[in-house]
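Next comes a single protein record:
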Amino acid sequence: MPDYIDSWSTRSGNKLLVEILKCMVPQWKDGPREWQAGCEGNIMDGRDVLAITATGDGKTALNTGTHLSQITNPLRKILSALLYRR
């Protein structure tokens, strides 16, 4: 495990992102779906994402990524260091 997360779209970055989302949105008990977490990771890394899924699949939840990035990007190294200490 790396000492810090340098990208949200990596496996370890995505895992951290899912845990952050579960903490920040306690009503979302199961956290994001796998495809949502992948999209969120790319959004947080500054990539454009086009999500085409059925009505009710959770596309609106992807809007949290841009707001969440304002909070988490400056803290990326601190959060990942705390969660992934050796």
Remarks:
- The chain is about 50% helix and 0% strand.
- The radius of gyration is 13 Å.
